[in-house]
Automatic annotation (TrEMBL):
Belongs to the Rab GDI family. One of its GO terms (biological process) is small GTPase-mediated signal transduction. This is Rab GDP dissociation inhibitor. GO terms for molecular function: Rab GDP-dissociation inhibitor activity. One of its GO terms (cellular component) is cytoplasm. Pfam families: GDI. InterPro entries: FAD/NAD-bd_sf, GDP_dissociation_inhibitor, RabGDI. It comes from Colletotrichum liriopes. It comes from the Eukaryota.
């Protein structure tokens, strides 16, 4: 490991995405950067944490209890404090690729998204619907919302930007 320098050109506080990109860009430009965070995890307010960290930060449990143990191994869980979605061909993706930050990131297709419903001991976790069947079974919505969600998901599945027949009157969303 390199020795810790006595002087730096820049000190970056925090390890959120913005701070990490800034630190990386400055380093690539030849600046001597000290990058530190007061937290015991990376990512700042947008971190991904394991179950134990999540419970310790937000949980409501008695001292001495370890409620996270009933969910299996800690490393099987990564909970985004702020879910991060990137469009695969979006501008942010292009910026991340051009700054070589992608060497430190892993991109995955989203397998599912979940939300907490309720608080305290009555809290439950529910899957955000991603197909018409899940929309109809979801506890997150009433019957009318379920039908609208089902229709919306079906519309997305058949939508083709080049085929106005699939737009169903929503073509103005893509005109700039």
């Amino acid at each position: 490991m390199d020795e810790i320098a006595k002087e730096y050109d820049v000190i970056v506080l925090g390890t959120g995405l913005t701070e990490c990109i800034l630190s990386g860009v400055l380093s690539v430009k030849g600046k001597k950067v000290l990058h530190i965070d007061r937290n015991d995890h990376y990512g700042g307010e947008a971190a991904s944490v394991n179950l134990e960290t999540l419970f310790k930060k937000y949980g409501n449990y008695a001292q001495g209890e370890e409620p996270w143990t009933k969910y299996g191994r800690l490393n099987d869980w990564n909970i985004d404090l702020v879910p991060k979605f990137l469009m695969s061909a979006g501008e942010l993706t292009n910026i991340l690729v051009s700054t070589d930050v992608t060497r430190y990131l892993e991109f995955k297709q989203v397998a599912g998204s979940y939300v907490q419903q309720g608080q305290g001991s009555k809290a439950t976790v529910a899957k955000v619907p991603s197909d018409a069947g899940e929309a109809l079974r979801s506890p997150l919505m009433g019957i009318f919302e379920k039908r609208r969600m089902k229709s919306f998901i079906e519309w997305i599945g058949t939508f083709d930007l080049k085929d106005p027949g699939t737009h169903k009157g929503e073509h103005n969303l893509w005109e700039a």
